[in-house]
Give the backbone structure.
Amino acid sequence: MTLFLLSYLGGVLTILSPCILPVLPFVFARSDQPFMRSGLPLLGGMALAFAAIATIATVGGNWAIQANQAGRIAAMILLAVFGLTLLVPSLAERLTRPLVALGSRLSSRAQQADGGSIWASALLGVATGLLWAPCAGPILGLILTGAAIQGASVNTSMLLLAYALGAATSLAAALLIGGRLFAGMKRSLGASEWVRRALGVLVLAGVAAIALGLDTGLLTQLSTASTNKIEQSLLQTVGLERKTTSTAVAGSDLPVEGHLPELTGATLWLNSPPLTREQLRGKVVLVDFWTYSCINCLRALPYVRAWAEKYKNHGLVVIGVHAPEFAFEKTEANVRRAVSDLGITYPVAQDNNLTIWQAFNNQYWPAHYFIDVEGRIRHHHFGEGEYERSEAVIQQLLREGGRTNVPGGTVDPKAEGALAAGAPTAKTSHETYLGYGRGQNFASGTARTDESANYQTTAQLQPGQWGLDGQWTIGKEMSRLDAPGGKISFRFHARDVHLVLAPSKEGGGKPVRFKVTLDGRPPGDGHGMDVAADGSGSVTEDRLYQLIRLKSPGDHTFTIEFADPGVQAFAFTFG
């Protein structure tokens, strides 16, 4: 119930988010109609359509993506016609004839600005729901991440519906207030006709903004209302409430948050035979959920390695649970190579089926769980940072477990390259996936999923947008280059640019040569560890590549051009 309440509150907060702006005209266009017969059915249709289409999106099949695209196109046509009838009522009958000829009686009724039909309003709501692309803040991200990992389910659909109903609630409040405002304008100014025409212009502007991708591009980068911070505070509050209901430990400020589950289900153990809960009894255990192409995991790794080395003779056991995000991260050879290259000597459980992940009810990369000598989870931390606090917890649990001469102080690992700490700012670009399963902000026309197509990025990229040039196949997880000379471009704000890449499988894993430019020039001193100053480099294995490393964050356009075909591009991350 807590997660359902959080989902609802996350939806309520979307009224403060800039990405709600394109759909507001569709809602306010019915403000002069009775709320129960017009506004409420419209918002209900919007909530149901969004929940349904978001659930279908988690299935990720090609048919689902095509159905979604077709639905969005139909919705844009319907709402554009509706906007035109608000502007020019005399054209309504002429414009609705094609819809009537196609049997769209409900659609034709929806065009009447004064219709007031419950079903017509619901139809407009469904169209709005098909077009609505809310900014994926922490709460919606939590729902979608869970769906991506565990698959679509009734629970996922209900959480999405709760989110949509929260948005509908705040929009309903705005509609009731706006309706009274418009009514007052009509009475005091006699401006009924002009108000209706203004709403028609706004509806068409909303359709144009969505058609141009502004709702998922520029607007998602704006954070004037700081909704992400509010949502994060809600999640943290829930975490504190969980702690207060946990079992207290006498003489300690670390409560019992749960118990170490069985570590069965791993497909492979590296650096150690399989470990059991019984074998770990009497040890302080740090469980680190990570995956080798996750930039946040890599940045936390130097601290985990340093703790493992510093406290290994004092009763600490570190276990890395490698929980893959992409398919190539399930390959044993890739994980073995990553563990070796990263200098990891402590036990690593390869959790390809996410069995251990689900046993911990985990939802984050990286995630650190601290277990005492009695097998009780006493502390956790998600993401990067708070390293001093985490090390203090390790020291406290060792002392509580009867260890003496526990080393004090804190580690200070000297990390380089992709493992070095990031330099995030409020404007730092978000992680962006290049497959249709979770991709967004694509700026090279309509993506043709699971088939080879030619793409071109003609317009100037907006912040957070990316585009392809050349012959590419856009798959669920990644985009694959089918001919030499293909490019990927991204308009970003950050200090560092990372891209998860894999060489051609058809070519037997042969290296793929590339050239990187920053604002149209070689990166020079701004090159990353996997790129030379002239921008040259090659993709030799499946992993995360650091391509840009600037002295300070800034706004730039990044482009990578591949001389050879077959490269697979999975996701951008920034820092």
